[in-house]
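Render DUF58 domain-containing protein in 3D.
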Amino acid sequence: MKLILILGAAFLLLFLLERGYRRFWSRDLHVEVHFQPHPAREGEEATLTEIIENRKVLPVPMLQVEFLLDRSLGIDEEENASLSDQLYKRDVFSVSFYQKISRTIPLKCRKRGYYHIHEANLIAGGLQMEKNYYKDIPQDTFLYVYPGDVSIDRLKLPMHRLGGVLEGRRGMVEDPFAFAGMREYDGTDPMNRINWKASARSGNLMVNLQNSTYSPRVACFVDVEDVTMWKHMEIHEEAIRLAASLLRSVLKKGIPASLYTNGEDFLSGSLVQVPEGSGRGQTEKINRSLSRLNLNAKKRPGPISVELLRMEHELTSTQQVVVLITENQGEALQDAVRKMASKGASFLWLGVFYKKEGWSGPNIHGVDYLKWEVEHEG
């Protein structure tokens, strides 16, 4: 009888302890997941930090923290993650009373994008490990992964062609007596701009800047419409990298630039477009906008010719130069370019194609053409 009472008391105590633990395990237990505060670039590494803080006497012997990560943010093979359309990241901790645990996870940014973690799921094992208790904690952390850089050696040719188109506009004559300062050589500048004396003094190649009788402007149109039933992701991603690299170089030279695409913004659902601007702030706007360009949107992108014609008056009545980046060779696009070129718009048409595809560009007066080759990974 005495043994039965002891066992009964023990079971009652375990029941009360388990009930108390179920009620209080998540109280004053704080979990935060956050990306690094600054953006990364495609191909670079980034970090994600997990912070678990238990601000009470009651420990949590087994705590599993789960959250979803996009599979484009690679995690080392040793990490505990199951692979599907997204990475379901799981980590298990044993959290003592009044303990804070901080863990930094390295990420490999395999692809440009906007990555957001909305929620962390907590699973706590019961005292006897026979039951699990659950709690969802809202999170609000994001990471921008900017488009990767194209090779500076490859960028020289389109920048040289663009310079030729810009100088072809009447009035694009720099005043050699109106000195506007110097900056570092960026690999795309002509050799006759180098100030050798200043370069010797600074230890870095420096180029002269001259004022101009007018301010050149560049409007870049990026086409992400698939011209066949197949999705050419490699083509579109390379077009985005090319646009980002080219516009960064243009803005670095002090030339105002704008961006227009027929692709959808991942956040707003509207078209990714950036009005004209200049300086470092404009570079950031363009990088962020291209990061959010969603190539997997349910709605198929419309023709880029529609966006060109929508801006027809602005582009033909000003001194802007149009850079068109596309794999499209359709008649509607050619007609739109031909119409605008006949009204005085200047074009640099960058055709983005796989290496084995031949292309020389349609014969339209006033349009300069350049093929940009892409390796086929498939």
